[in-house]
Automatic annotation (TrEMBL):
Transmembrane segments: none annotated. InterPro entries: Met_Sox_Rdtase_MsrA_dom, Met_Sox_Rdtase_MsrA_sf, MsrA_MetSO_reductase. This is Peptide methionine sulfoxide reductase MsrA. The keyword Membrane does not apply. The gene is msrA. The keyword S-adenosyl-L-methionine does not apply. Keywords: Oxidoreductase. Residues 51-204 form the Peptide methionine sulphoxide reductase MsrA domain. It is an enzyme of class 1 (oxidoreductase). Has an important function as a repair enzyme for proteins that have been inactivated by oxidation. Catalyzes the reversible oxidation-reduction of methionine sulfoxide in proteins to methionine. One of its GO terms (cellular component) is cytoplasm.
Amino acid sequence: MFLIDIFNKKLHLPTADGALPGRAAAIPTAETHYVNGHALHGPYPDGLEVAYFALGCFWGAERKFWQAGEGVWTTAVGYQGGVTPNPTYQETCTGMTGHTEVVKVVYDPAKISYAALLKLFWESHDPTQGMRQGNDVGTQYRSAIYTTTEAQAAAAEASKQAYGQALKAAGRGGITTEIAPAPPFYYAEASHQQYLAKNPGGYCGLGGTGVSCPIGTGVDA
């Protein structure tokens, strides 16, 4: 019965009363990006924008975005969308913080469009699986887009509709991706930042649906 209860908790978001308490201070993390040396924390150079994406295990997800091109200035992984302040990785894995694993993307919209980032997001995972991504099961693996501007929110919703239609045409299920204004982002521990650059043979965990959609990927999109 205990194992069944733990499994059920990992598939359902905790209430504020039932979540782990967390802590007031941020947990230690890296200061710079392991691959390009740029700062993980702000303030960032003028003209850059911030976007947040959750698409399963953040190790593989982050690599997708730092490899997206010179328009991506820096990336970082962390926890978002839950209740517990400043959670640890171990706490998030229990399903009792409510957070999902997220990639923070700091980008130059003059060099890479938000539409291009959305396309990468939708086509790098299966957004129809709810509280899981492939073999990774739990609330921390749920799909989400957390927006920082009204323009991002409108673009994210439009892309969700477009990919939803493409997935339906391909006989797939409905999209379960959450789209919401960005809640607090808590940086993950240093060992998780740019994990697959430090551990090239490490676990990735990302799949996809094989469905593509022409939502626009250019600078002017």
